[in-house]
Amino acid sequence: MTVEPNVNLNEPNADISEILISADEIEKRIQTLGVQISSDYAELQPLVVGVLKGVLFFMADLLRAITINVEVDFMAVSSYSPEARDQGLVRLVKDLETPISGRHVIFVEDVVDTGLTLNYLLRNLTTRDPASLEVCTLFNKPKHRLIDIPIKYKGFDLPDQFVVGYGLDHRERYRNLPFIGVLNPQAL
Ligand code: 5GP
Question: Which domain range does residue 63 map to?
Answer without folding.
Answer: 23-158
